[in-house]
Backbone:
């Protein structure tokens, strides 16, 4: 990223903070009641105070642990289930209808089920986090596997490769961009649901602490929780995207955009007609 783009992003954030400070310090009441909001300075002061306390870091550790466990389980099982449904008619018939019925149910609506089913609140929150991330990963993997061109699979089979060789040499590497797209969506949804679950049934965690601050009318503390959640979500999603770029570095990269002042050259003559795009194919077995 160029220095100019970094400067624009920093200026955008600074402008938003400046507008927040202006509206709250002047107690602006134009339909939206900014007089109820803490100022940027009050939130920054509360944030600095929280950084020096052990409960803040304890809550941070609990939330991160729940996210890591739930998200890793969702990544492994979501990729496995999505690949199986896309590659096997038996898996598509057995698992497909069940997944389509369960997928529209919001993960946070499963809190009563988790409380009744699992022996502890901690396991219930991890279950909610896993469920939230599982379905985006499954759906993205299923579509990414189904649209793979069959020519590479046929080439491996022709050279004597078996199903496992096809799976690990063709299917999974070819589906990686789609898989990481699902992982990127999944980590964001997982944060939404883990914070909500902590607010409802948690004993520790950033969501729990944010709700406790709200109940005692500590509004700067509420905003400290919101800032912490946003920062954690940004860091984890950035990490997933970074891993995705590293894992797919072998793929052809899109050309850089030409600068606006570049001289426009005449279009090249049309190439030979390419075959039709590969449509989604049915599972093979």
Residues:
């Amino acid at each position: 990223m160029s220095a100019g783009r970094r400067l624009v992003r920093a200026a955008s954030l600074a402008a938003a903070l400046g507008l927040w400070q202006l509206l709250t310090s002047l107690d602006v009441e134009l339909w939206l009641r900014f007089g109820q909001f803490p100022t940027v300075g009050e939130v920054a002061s509360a944030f600095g105070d929280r950084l020096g306390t052990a409960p803040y870091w304890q809550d941070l550790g609990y939330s991160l642990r729940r996210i890591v466990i739930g998200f890793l389980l969702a990544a492994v099982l979501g990729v496995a289930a999505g690949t199986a449904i896309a590659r096997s008619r038996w898996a598509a018939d057995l698992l497909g209808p069940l997944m389509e019925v369960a997928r529209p149910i919001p993960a946070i609506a499963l809190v009563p089920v988790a409380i009744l089913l699992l022996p502890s609140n901690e396991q219930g929150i991890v279950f909610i986090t896993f469920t939230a991330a599982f379905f985006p990963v499954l759906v993205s993997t299923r579509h990414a596997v189904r649209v793979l061109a069959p020519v590479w699979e046929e080439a491996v089979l022709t050279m004597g490769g078996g199903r496992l060789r096809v799976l690990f040499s063709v299917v999974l590497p070819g589906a990686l961009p789609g898989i990481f797209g699902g992982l990127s969506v999944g980590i964001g949804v997982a944060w939404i649901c883990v914070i909500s679950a902590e607010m409802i049934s948690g004993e520790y965690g950033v969501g729990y602490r944010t709700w406790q601050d709200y109940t005692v009318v500590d509004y700067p503390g509420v905003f400290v929780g919101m800032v912490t959640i946003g920062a954690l979500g940004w860091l984890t999603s950035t990490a997933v995207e970074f891993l995705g770029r590293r894992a797919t570095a072998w793929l052809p990269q899109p050309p850089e955009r030409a600068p606006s002042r570049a001289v426009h050259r005449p279009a090249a003559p049309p190439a030979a007609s390419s075959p039709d795009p590969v449509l989604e194919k049915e599972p093979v077995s």
About this structure: Residues 156 and 169 are 9 Å apart (CA to CA). The chain is about 70% helix and 0% strand. Confidence is low (pLDDT under 50) at residues 271-280.
